[in-house]
Amino acid sequence: TDSYAPGFYGAPTPITVPPGVVTTADPVLAVTRGTIAGTVRDASTGSGVAGAWVAALNPADGTFERGAVALSSGWFSLGGLRPGEHLLLFLDRTGAHPARFHPNVAAAPDATRLDVVGGATTNGDATVDGQPIPAPASYVRGTVTRAGSGTALSGIQVIALRQADFAFIRGTTTDGSGRYTLNVPSGDSYKVGFIDPTARHAMEWYNDRAAQALFSADNV
Questions:
Q1: Which of 28, 81, 116, 142 sits in a 20 to 30 Å window from 18, CA-based?
Q2: Which residues face 195 on adjacent strands?
Q3: Distances (CA, A) of 51 to 5, 71, 76, 124
């Protein structure tokens, strides 16, 4: 998993093992992964955005790395991140806040990159603007399964972006059977994406389109 740096015991230190004797050697490995933690709040009220989805992205190509769900206070923690710079994206599944990059910008090029150090925690406190919640009038429903096996995948985050301007509209999570129901305003087309917050599955858009294929992904 590359979570710890390889190394020798000691400098290295030779270990003598006499016949019939158990010799103890307690090596210490350096931690190679770090954490981003903080609280995401509403820019106007200062209240924590409960249940906000927080995603760490690779700034080089925008690929998803790891995700977390904020507590009721808005606090979140993203562990297991490689050393170096990361982008932080905030999504409110209710649609009460638009998608925002850290600290509170709409576009990735304008975002502040957060530097992660192995074995340390980087502060990721941020605020996000509010917006009127779009009235849901229609539904997008389906089931998310693992490619090849057909196994239903629970806990997958499903997002809808308005096709006209790629604005984030709403999100939901698959249930224990991999099913989801996404409430959206009627009369529009959407790009529907699927994210595994554990990063065990690659992010995709509807109809098995790769994460980088947003512009050519099929509309729903």
A1: 28
A2: 157
A3: 34, 6, 9, 16
Q: Which DSSP category does 199 fall into?
A: S
Phi/psi for 151 (5° steps) reads: -70, 130
Along the 220 residues of the chain, how does pLDDT read in single tens digits? 677 778 888 888 888 888 988 988 888 877 889 999 999 999 999 999 999 999 999 999 889 999 999 999 999 999 999 999 999 999 999 999 999 999 999 999 999 999 999 999 999 999 999 999 878 789 999 999 999 999 999 999 999 999 999 999 999 999 999 999 999 999 999 999 999 999 999 999 999 999 988 999 999 9
Q: Going by C-beta distance under 8 Å and a sequence separation of 6 or more, which residues neighbour residue 137?
A: 184, 185, 186
Contact indicator for 89, 101 with CB cutoff of 8 Å:
yes
Distance (Å, rounded) from C-alpha 7 to C-alpha 203?
Answer: 34
**DSSP track, 115-177:** EE-TT-EEE--EEE---PPPPP-EEEEEE-B-TTT--B--S-EEEEEETTT--EEEEEE--TT
